[in-house]
Amino acid sequence: AVISPQDPTLLIGSSLVATCTVSPESHLRAEDLYWTLNGRRLPATSYTTLGPTTLSVALSRLNGSKQQSGDNLVCHSRDGGILAGSCLYVGLPPEKPVNISCWSKNMKDLTCKWAPGAEGETYLHTNYTLKYKLRWYGRDNTCQEYHTAGTYSCRIPKDLALFTPYEIWVEASNRMGVAVSDVVMLDILDV
């Protein structure tokens, strides 16, 4: 069997019509099929038979995904067998990270924290990347030691320049887009 669309990414509140098509060799027909979402059977009133071997389901006003790995939409045969599945990723684009603050214990390292944005929850797996560079001539660097001072934090352990300002920012990305914080300017001696 084949489900279409396969693994779509949708905005909260969206609607979706998915189809399950079984091959004629399976000896299954549309009336032999049913749908589940995260293990719960969807009502037959949401189904439409589109052909002898194709059954669609209409989902409306979708809520944010219950699991960051996506919600499981599954097409089953009458006896409960799984024929095909699709992950629905329902959520929001990331918001611009805010409130970046940094400190240094010994002028050799730098630890920064931030907040994920006003709402924070996107219902989708969101990656946060702290980036930094020397203000006038540096290339972009990416922080490697995350979660050192809490969920939204990163530590730069070495190779920092003194007497030169740094530009520091955070990029948030998920299946629906990228949001970039304002750039913070700081000198290691000041933090």
TrEMBL record:
Superkingdom, natural source: Eukaryota
SUPFAM superfamilies assigned to the protein according to its UniProt record, in alphabetical order: Fibronectin type III, Immunoglobulin
Record keyword Cell cycle present: no
Protein's UniProt keywords contain Disulfide bond: yes
CDD domains noted in UniProt: FN3 (cd00063)
Keywords assigned: Disulfide bond, Glycoprotein, Immunoglobulin domain, Phosphoprotein, Receptor, Repeat, Signal
All residue ranges annotated as the Fibronectin type-III domain in the record: 96-191
InterPro entries (alphabetical): FN3_dom, FN3_sf, Growth/epo_recpt_lig-bind, Ig-like_dom_sf, Ig-like_fold, IgC2-like_lig-bd
Listed transmembrane segments: none
PROSITE patterns referenced in this protein's UniProt entry, alphabetically: FN3
Name of the protein in question: Cytokine receptor-like factor 1
Species in which this protein is naturally found: Dryobates pubescens (Downy woodpecker)
